[in-house]
Amino acid sequence: MKESVPPEPSHPADDITHHLGYLLKRAQAALRGAMDKVLREHGLTVPQYSTLELLALHPGMSNADLARATFVTRQSGNVVLRGLQDAGLITRPATADHGRARPARLTDEGRARLATVQAAVHAVEQRMTDALPPRRVTALLTDLDLIAAALEE
């Protein structure tokens, strides 16, 4: 019978800047900063852009679903939706057909704004993937998904 040997720690305990969580947060902060910069030029925030992307794929999503998908609170999600509606980029019914959900949809202007900013945001993502050998990108995406799933359990 083989003796079980505990795995080596994934990071040196005395240097937080080498911890996986720290490095993930650093990458997330860099991504957010780069996205903020390009989106600001188009009058959008990251949550607004994410909301437009999601509504393009899934018209009629509720505030609660959009908030979860864009990593903001429902209250913040409602502020995002009101801002997009005030800007003429989405529409929502004045009242809910049932319950409290008021499904949101992109307007023609919202679709046009999204199309305009997508290239700039995709260029930011391309900068990230260009930093890696192509063969490692798929593995990284898989690993990030596994990490998220492990923490959501």
From TrEMBL:
Q: Where is the HTH marR-type domain?
A: 17-153
Lineage top rank: taxon = Bacteria
User: Could you tell me which SMART domains the record lists for this protein?
Assistant: HTH_MARR
Name-wise, this protein is MarR family winged helix-turn-helix transcriptional regulator
Task: Give the originating organism.
Answer: Streptomyces ramulosus
Tell me the organism's taxonomic lineage.
Bacteria, Bacillati, Actinomycetota, Actinomycetes, Kitasatosporales
